[in-house]
């Protein structure tokens, strides 16, 4: 049993010759640090397996137990301490579609018929020595210099956030179009100074892109630009900050879309990534977190392996958060049509058409738009097909607003076309993250419209004043440079903006070579490099990074973050955390479920709260009270509060307590529903809560607001054993509201003489009582209270 910095190799137990030949071969490998552990080999294979488990060092076992998938260590062995004890997978077929893939699992037959136990790599020849050509491919990396450069860049950006503007002879970002113009400029300059990209050259077309693409998505233009760029591209992977995997799904799709079978595509990508992981240490070092791919569709990465989808940086046109796009690590790529990509249009004052759209009814949003506005208003030019002789781009050049509803996917090339023609884009989409939104404040130069507001489209656009539109149009023209395509690329154009988005995400990653792992640093994400601090005023997407930690957060951490989501009123973060809770198996934790319920309530998502509540197997009084408080705080759900209270009472698993009573009674008082209040009082009396301060105060307030203060409210008030200032204030307010002015003042006098101290609420309740007397009496009483 050999441990090479966390990787182990087990040979067939029944072959002594193979065992003795393997050890010298491994000892000749250029390992910086490795230890040998000798195991007593037994003829009984089961006992040997048990000994193997015991002999695994605890730090190695812990590392692999906290990682969700097998890893390839930097010496080329695919390892996993759990899977090594299971039957090995079958060898890959010999007619693999990619010659670059190095299949590391190799099944070994045992001559005596015993069950084989192995993880033996193809790197060893028959004599147990590594193949010379493979030994040259195995590299060892040093991250200290790379991480120091990134640390200096982080410090410079942090300093620039509130500092002076940086001089630039070409362009200085300014204005409300940027979340933080000074931070963005400094970050961009740091990227120009330090950022290096290593492009893998392994693979054959169509796995590897073969040149610039002329399609509407123009992905190949970026690939071609990065491959020909001497400034950002490095041939030395040790100097690289990120690694580009240049496979393109676009060139694979035409071969597979007809059949609908994506398994060949999955095989291509999987073989390509396996080859990269086998030849280089960098993928395994960070679990792909510092690698990025580029594709308008997410088929390739999501259908291949879990790593590309979960860990690597994906530059996608289809930036749909409901389909797996994660703004914390993924980049939104603008769809650009270069066929007619001219720039410019009429000035803001000369645009005669209020809004324009022409396109097919792809998807429900476009169908809804066409149904409401197609050929129904001269100001809102919405067409499925344009008449012959009418130019699509000329219509955009003459329109103030260009409607950009999503079709079958959330992104649309109309967004960039509108920017090119100086037409303010109106984004009508759901779950869409606009390009470069971690830097650009889209609300300053575009209009975001929800689907439910489509019928009110004209009213919303007409509410934009001419002055506001001119300002918006001016900002849009300034933003055009960030979406232009140049060959060769120019500063601040779309090529550099995409690179900057990748650069920002690399700043959020720290790779630790000594642990052969990486993590996205939550401290950084929650400070200067999250959208919350560096580029925007919106909530950060820090919770999504929890999935990249080697040590998973427990329920206490999740509960704390959910509480923060409530304070920030950030429902998208909360729903992302809910998905994470389900994936990590915390669905039966009451603390986590209570945090989720509270988050949904505070964010106004009562339907989601009720849906989650119905799925819970067991609810304690705290859980029931959270739901009760949520419905009682919404005026639209007053009728549901009593229903939930009755459900709690009839469930038998958690009987209502004084908190439940204090939650439901104010709602009945607000509605003047004395009958329901009497029912609750009956339960309080039977349960013995009548003398409880909290329940008694709620009953006093309820009876007072229902107009039965002199009898019922006062009787409950007298039964409260430990009256607090709330008890006195509620009774005084109830007496005054029901016209019993003298009784209210007498009760206040009793309060002053007693041990309970009044507060501002009590004074606020008694001053109107004084004002109801004659002027002389009111003045005298008021002076006494003032003193």
Automatic annotation (TrEMBL):
InterPro entries named in the record: Exostosin, Exostosin_GT47, PPR_rpt, TPR-like_helical_dom_sf
One annotated GO molecular function: glycosyltransferase activity
Record's subcellular location: Golgi apparatus membrane
Membrane protein topology class: Single-pass type II membrane protein
Ranges for the PPR repeats: 620-655, 724-758
Domain Exostosin GT47 intervals: 192-463
Residues in the signal sequence: none
Assigned keywords, A-Z: Glycosyltransferase, Golgi apparatus, Repeat, Signal-anchor, Transferase, Transmembrane
Family: Belongs to the glycosyltransferase 47 family.
Annotated protein name in UniProt: Exostosin GT47 domain-containing protein
Organism taxonomic ancestry: Eukaryota, Viridiplantae, Streptophyta, Embryophyta, Tracheophyta
């Amino acid at each position: 049993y050999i441990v090479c910095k966390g990787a182990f190799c087990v040979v067939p137990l029944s072959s002594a010759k193979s065992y003795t030949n393997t050890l010298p071969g491994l000892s000749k490998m250029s390992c910086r640090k490795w230890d040998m552990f000798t195991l007593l080999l037994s003829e009984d294979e089961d006992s040997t397996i048990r000994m193997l488990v015991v002999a695994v060092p605890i730090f190695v076992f812990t590392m692999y137990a906290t990682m969700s998938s097998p890893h390839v260590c930097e010496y080329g062995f695919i390892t996993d301490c759990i899977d090594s004890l299971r039957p090995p997978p079958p060898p890959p077929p010999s007619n693999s579609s990619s010659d670059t893939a190095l299949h590391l699992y190799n099944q070994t037959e045992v001559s005596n018929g015993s069950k084989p136990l192995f993880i033996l790599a193809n790197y060893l020849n028959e004599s147990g020595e590594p193949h010379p050509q493979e030994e040259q491919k195995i590299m060892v990396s040093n991250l200290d210099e790379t991480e120091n450069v990134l640390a200096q860049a982080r410090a410079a950006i942090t300093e620039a956030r509130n500092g002076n503007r940086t001089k630039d002879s070409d362009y200085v970002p300014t204005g409300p179009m940027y979340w933080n113009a000074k931070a963005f400029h400094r970050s961009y300059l740091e990227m120009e100074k330090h950022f290096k990209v290593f492009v893998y050259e392994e693979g054959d077309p169509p796995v590897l892109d073969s040149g610039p693409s002329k399609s509407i998505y123009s992905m190949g233009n970026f690939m071609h630009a990065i491959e020909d760029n001497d400034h950002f591209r490095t041939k030395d992977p040790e100097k690289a900050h990120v690694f580009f995997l240049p496979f393109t799904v676009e060139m694979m799709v035409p071969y597979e879309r007809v059949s609908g079978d994506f398994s060949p595509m999955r095989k291509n990508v999987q073989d390509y990534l396996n080859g990269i992981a086998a030849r280089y240490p960098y993928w395994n070092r960070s679990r792909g977190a510092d690698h990025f791919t580029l594709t308008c569709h997410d088929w390739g990465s999501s259908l291949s392996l879990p790593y590309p989808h979960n860990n690597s940086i994906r530059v996608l046109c289809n930036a749909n958060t409901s389909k797996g796009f994660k703004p914390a690590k993924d980049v939104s790529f603008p769809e650009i049509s270069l066929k007619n990509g001219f720039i410019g249009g009429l000035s803001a004052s000369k645009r005669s058409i209020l809004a324009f759209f022409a396109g097919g009814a792809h998807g429900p949003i476009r169908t809804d738009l066409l149904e409401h506005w197609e050929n129904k208003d001269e100001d809102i030019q919405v067409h499925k097909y344009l008449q012959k002789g009418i130019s699509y781009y000329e219509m955009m050049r003459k329109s103030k607003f260009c409607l950009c509803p999503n079709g079958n996917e959330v992104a649309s090339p109309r967004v960039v076309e509108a920017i090119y023609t100086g037409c303010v884009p109106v984004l009508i989409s759901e779950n869409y993250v606009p390009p470069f939104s971690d830097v650009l404040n889209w609300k300053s130069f575009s209009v975001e419209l929800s689907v439910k507001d489509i019928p009110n489209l004209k009213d919303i656009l007409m509410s934009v004043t001419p002055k506001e539109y001119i300002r918006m149009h001016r900002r849009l023209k300034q933003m055009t440079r960030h979406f232009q395509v140049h060959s060769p690329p120019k500063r601040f154009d779309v090529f550099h903006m995409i690179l900057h988005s990748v650069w920002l995400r690399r700043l959020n990653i720290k790779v630790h070579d000594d642990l052969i792992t990486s993590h996205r640093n939550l401290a950084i994400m929650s400070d200067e490099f999250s959208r919350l601090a560096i580029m925007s005023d919106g909530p950060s997407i820090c919770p999504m990074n929890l999935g990249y930690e080697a040590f998973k957060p427990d329920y206490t951490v999740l509960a704390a973050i959910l509480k923060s989501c409530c304070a920030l009123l950030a429902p998208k973060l909360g729903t992302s955390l809910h998905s994470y809770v389900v994936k990590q198996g915390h669905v039966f934790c009451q603390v986590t479920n209570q945090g989720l319920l509270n988050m949904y309530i505070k964010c106004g998502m009562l339907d989601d709260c009720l849906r989650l509540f119905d799925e819970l197997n067991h609810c304690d009084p705290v859980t029931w009270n959270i739901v009760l408080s949520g419905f009682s705080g919404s005026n639209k759900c007053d009728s549901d509060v009593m229903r939930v209270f009755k459900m709690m009472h009839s469930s038998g698993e958690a009987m209502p307590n004084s908190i439940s009573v204090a939650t439901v009674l104010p709602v009945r008082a607000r509605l003047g529903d004395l009958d329901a209040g009497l029912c609750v009082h009956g339960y309080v009396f039977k349960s013995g809560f009548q003398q409880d301060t909290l329940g008694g105060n709620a009953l006093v307030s309820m009876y007072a607001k229902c107009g039965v203060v002199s009898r019922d409210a006062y009787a409950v008030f007298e039964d409260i054993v430990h009256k607090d200032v709330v008890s006195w204030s509620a009774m005084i307010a109830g007496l005054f509201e029901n016209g019993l002015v003298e009784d209210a003042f007498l009760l206040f006098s009793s309060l002053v003489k007693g041990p309970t101290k009044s507060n501002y609420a009590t004074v606020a309740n008694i001053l109107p009582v004084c004002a109801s007397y004659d002027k002389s009496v009111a003045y005298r009483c008021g002076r006494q209270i003032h003193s």
